[in-house]
Design brief:
about 700 residues, alpha/beta, six-stranded antiparallel β-sheet, 22 helices, globular, binds flavin-adenine dinucleotide
């Protein structure tokens, strides 16, 4: 029988759909462009690239691919450092790759004379980073199906692994541990140890440095590599444009991507494409001597952004003017700051981490994490470009001596420009190729904030609650000030009518590139989280959130009050809140009373003020005092939520809860711990900690 037109149309559509599914859009060249621009964007090294690892290595003549699973940029930075070191010390042909850009069913066709490295951060509750989700699911699946279908699919694979974790979390370095196990199970051969860096102990960088040397030695032996004198080779060419000026319309002055440059920004808004959100309202929740806390509301009604109670708002900060000036000055670039530069990757597998053509000023202000802690390895790299012999010797010493580095650099919270100023005693470091900074300094990262409003109550207005980061550093004149929170503080000043907004003397280019943020806007996106109220509001909840940890609980209580007002049955809500003094930093003090009016006895606020009595009282003490009630609520299947400080509070709350179960139920501490563990596994115990 003949097919009629409709049949043909339907069959063609099915075929197209199937192709699209199996090729993941490759045939159409649908690849994620970091700047969301058009496909001819010269910065998009990825456009049209294969998702097959062996092919990618073959096409680009590489024998080492370094994958990163990164959330805040550290894993990505370590990956590029390994790439550089592999190349400069051992002549390996390296490439760095985002896990998200490849398919892993082809891992079995990587030849045995090549090596695959994994640098994997573990995020939150033992979760993969956003870009590692698919890889992790595939590789750890019992029945992972590799292309060639061999019995021991990865028998040819040589790999190296390093994990970034935090020992204060339950699932310490789960990613690297699970991936390492899975790779071994599939028959792959690991070279060196599966390294583990610990952010909780503050030793991440040193753990990485200590791990990599024996790894390189083992890899050199395995692959027959010969070590040579490391010579710096730039990855990017940065040249001054002869034709363009900062006024030219095609020059990026801090716009995050092409759409923003052309004024056609549209969703989806995400980690590659922020929404320039109007700030609707902002005020200080408290102000005491050198501490302030901000409440900021951004309006998302002009976007297609949405959020759910418990999600996070990512804020894209701008560096403070004085830090941008310091950085450009120490490099001798102050006069050239507004010159237009073209930036090109000299290696086709490298991608320029910001859009170009642009200016030095824009790169440093909007795209580089110039205020972050300095990497010891980076100082060693820069030694070769020192302005004189004494500075060179000092840089080499700092690079090689961990304790000396800690004393001279870290103890003073110096950033890279501060370190160069100190070491060079005021001389300009004009010999350093700018590429070294593009490679050696992280991309400026968005900061996350637990959303403190309920999406049920205000679906188009997101509020956050942030303490302005400021630390007195012994032996340093000025206090150390955080990047994003001081920028937010200045935005708050402007929103409240200050014509010269600043934060403790720090000023910002607050109207953004080409004044696009004027009228008080801040670039943001929403990150969805698993930190969620039970879908059944009649379930009781116990909320534990001292300090800014109370942020998501303001949203939770706001939501439950609204549900109750709408006539729903709402279960008991007990909030444990702690701060220093009720007269100082008691967040949302008056609001709790309003919620109480609606929720009545179903809402209870338990407070712990640490500086009102001679003995410090924290939320975990209050929990213990109420052991009986807490246990009773747990017997009624209450959900427990903990938010705030990961290092101490969350951990102690965990053990206090286990002790409560043990003492109240007459079981062993170990059994108590196990119940808590099971509650975590079933999402009855959730954490949002940082
Ligand atoms: P940064 O400049 O990033 O500095 C942060 C810290 O890094 C400093 O205190 C210091 O210890 C260290 N540091 C930075 N530079 C140096 C240097 N040169 N030398 C030595 N040490 C250095 N915060 C809130 O206030 N409210 C919230 O609701 C909230 N929710 C969060 C939710 C999540 C999921 C996460 C991950 C974090 C959350 N945070 C929250 C923390 C927030 O994201 C920021 O980390 C915080 O506001 C500080 O940002 P900043 O840019 O001002 O400081």
């Amino acid at each position: 029988a003949e097919l009629d037109t409709l049949d043909i149309v339907v069959l063609s559509l099915i075929l197209l759909g199937t192709l699209a599914y199996f090729t993941k859009g490759k045939l159409w060249g649908i690849v994620k462009d970091p700047y969301g621009g058009s496909f001819n964007n010269i910065n998009s090294a990825k456009a049209g690239k294969t998702r097959n690892i062996a092919e990618a290595l073959e096409e680009s003549n590489k024998n080492c691919i370094i994958f990163y699973g990164s959330q805040t940029g550290t894993a990505e930075d370590y990956a590029s450092r390994l790439a550089k070191e592999g190349k400069s010390r051992f002549g390996l042909e390296t490439m760095v790759a985002d896990l998200e850009d490849f398919d892993f069913d082809g891992l079995d066709s990587v030849p045995s004379d090549k090596v695959v490295m994994f640098v994997l951060a573990t995020y939150g509750e033992g979760e993969p980073t956003d870009n590692a989700v698919e890889f992790f699911e595939f590789i750890t699946a019992e029945d992972a199906a590799f292309t060639q279908g061999a019995d021991v699919p990865l028998a040819n694979l040589t790999y190296v692994g390093f994990g970034l974790g935090n020992n204060t979390y339950e699932h310490y370095n789960l990613m690297i541990r699970a991936v390492d196990k899975a790779l071994q199970r599939h028959g792959a051969t690991r070279v060196g140890e599966a390294g583990e860096g610990d952010d909780g102990a503050g030793t991440m960088e040193e753990d990485f440095l200590a791990w990599k040397d024996p790894m390189w030695a083992a890899l050199a032996e395995k692959m027959g590599l010969e070590e040579r004198e490391a010579v710096y080779e730039p990855i990017f060419s940065i040249t001054t444009s002869e034709t363009l000026t900062a006024d030219s319309t095609e020059v990026y002055l801090g716009e995050p991507n092409k759409m923003h440059l052309e004024g056609t920004a549209k969703g989806p808004f995400n980690a590659h494409n922020p929404y320039i959100a109007p700030i609707d309202e902002s005020h200080e929740l408290f102000t005491v001597k050198d501490r302030n806390c901000l409440h900021i509301e951004v309006d998302i009604s002009g976007s297609n952004l949405s959020y759910q109670t418990g999600d996070h708002l990512a804020v894209w900060p701008t560096n403070a003017g004085v830090e941008v000036d310091r950085f450009l000055s120490v490099l001798g670039l102050s006069d050239k700051r507004h010159s237009v530069v073209n930036v090109k990757a000299l290696d086709p597998t490298a991608k320029v981490p910001f859009p170009a053509p642009t200016t030095y000023d824009a790169i440093v202000r909007y795209h580089m994490e110039i205020c972050a802690p300095v990497s010891r390895q980076f100082l060693a790299t820069l030694a070769a470009f020192a302005p004189d012999e004494a500075s060179k010797a000092e840089m080499t010493k700092l690079g090689g001596d961990k304790d000396y580095f800690a004393e001279k650099i870290n103890a003073h919270h110096l950033n890279i420009a501060g370190a160069l100023e100190t070491v060079g005693k005021g001389q300009k470091w004009t010999n350093i190729p700018f590429s070294a900074f593009v490679e050696g300094i992280n991309k400026l990262q968005p900061r996350y904030y637990s959303i403190s409003s309920s999406s049920l109550v205000q679906p188009k207005k997101i509020s956050i609650t942030a303490v302005v980061e400021s630390q007195i550093i012994p032996g340093r004149e000025d206090a150390f000030r955080g990047v994003a929170t001081n920028y937010l503080f200045a935005l708050k000043q402007k929103q409240n009518g200050d014509p010269n907004p600043e934060s403790y003397g720090l000023t910002y280019e607050i109207t953004g590139p080409r004044n696009k943020y004027d009228g008080i806007h801040v670039p943001v996106h929403v990150r969805h989280s698993n930190f969620k109220l039970p879908s059944d509001p009649s379930k009781p909840v116990i909320l534990i959130g001292p300090g800014t940890g109370v942020a998501p609980f303001r949203a939770f209580v706001q939501e439950r009050a609204k549900l109750a007002a709408d006539g729903e049955t709402v279960g008991k809500t007990v909030l444990f809140f702690g701060c220093r003094k009720q007269s100082e930093d008691f967040l949302y003090k008056n609001e709790w009373e309003e919620y109480k009016k609606v929720l009545g006895d179903q809402f209870e606020l338990v407070t712990a003020f640490s500086r009102e009595t001679s003995k410090k009282v924290y939320v975990q003490h209050r929990l213990k005092e109420r052991a009986k009630e807490v246990n009773k609520l747990l017997e009624q299947k209450a959900y427990i939520y903990v938010c705030g400080d990961a290092a101490n509070m969350a951990r102690e709350v965990n053990s206090v809860l286990a002790q409560i179960l043990a003492s109240q139920r007459g079981i062993s501490d170990a059994k108590g711990e196990e119940i808590i563990k099971n509650m975590r596994a079933s999402n009855q115990y959730q954490e949002d900690v940082w």
